[in-house]
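Reviewers of the previous submission asked for a worked example of the structure-prediction workflow described in the proposal, so we include one complete record here. The input consisted solely of the amino acid sequence. No template or homolog information was supplied to the procedure at any stage.
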Amino acid sequence: MTSLETVATKESERIESLDVLRGFALLGILVVNILGFGLASAAFIDPGIYLTPFEGPDSVVWALVELTSEGAMRTLFSILFGAGVVLFVSGSRGKGGGLHYRRNFWLLVFGLIDMYVLLWLGDILITYALGGAVLWLIRNWKPRRLIILASLLLLLGTLQNLAFKITLDVARDAAVLMEQAEIAEVEIDAGTQGWAQGWIEFEKSNLAEIEGIQDEMEVRSHSYRSAFKYNIEGASEMLFFNIPFIFFLDALMMMVVGMALYKLGILEGKRESHFYFKMMWTGFCIGLLINTYEVWACVNSGMDVLETNPFFRSTYHLGRLAMGLGYLGLILWSIKSNWLQSLRARLACVGRMALTNYLMQSLFGLLIFTGAGLGLIGKLSWSQIYLFVPLIWLFQLIISPWWLKHFYFGPVEWLWRYLTYLKQPKMRR
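From that input alone, the workflow returned the following structure tokens.
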């Protein structure tokens, strides 16, 4: 038995649908991540700083991304990661927890490299590594039980978002009351003062980010060293607040959905074509309806931060789940209908090299936008940044099939397997 057969999944055993879906999600996630590469960090939370007044091509591009991609591609990626965990632990080599946890440990290391070396604060690998560690505990659950858990996590995430929004609304109202009381020279109770102070602190923090945009642009575009120093502070916030309190739950709920869908045979394309057609239309109808409402709410509020921040929206998780399922239905329906064979083959290659391609996108972001390369951060408008997206897509759609024509694995995939199994897989064909 060759080392390839011992260590790696045989090419004949690969599931086309998972590779195509993973490739599609990988390319799609760039649509959102490109903003983090090319704009100020605050743009994710408060796009109104760039899009007020709401007009012109920048606003149109923002609205289209919100409608079609925000949260949806991350959802799709998380679903596929959950499915991948089930696939791995159900195999003969993955039944032991040692391999699974070693695999996740090295994924965590790759994530830290992505965040600290490639300077990508929006890294998802760290979150996935932590989520994967939890998924081992429920690996043998039946689909019904997984769906119940996913529903509870979705409800929890929705309630969390709602709590964020209500808390800040109450705090802002209290700040208005305190201001009115000061004008009228009347006293207000300590509770109201406390709430008002909370809003003042939130507003100061948000204002500080806006006022510091120019400084951020200069530091991140000056040199790799200066960008690295700036990145350290943001990385600490991501590791110790955003990931454990926001993004972990965000990813986990969709990973559990992915585990259930894989065990039901849906992700493998085992259902009839009309099933995926219905999934596509139902998902897109619900998702686009919710996303249209959210875009309207943002615009109607004058791009107020409490509306533009996705994690302040009570409908956010339901909308992104629906859109993610819509894309699943679309891709799987196209596979069942045998459409676009050439494109599917290229997407499958991108998906087989998903980890390499994901880190490659971070490298492109580093070289194009930071001082390590062209230093274009802050020099392009919201819409102009998207000129790089099709170029990166084209490169990965060309380079991935070429690479896999000569090698069995992507370079990072090969290293990940080597570190996981402690055996050297065959690389060259």
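Residues 3-151+222-421 form one domain. We consider this example representative of the routine output the project will generate in years two and three.
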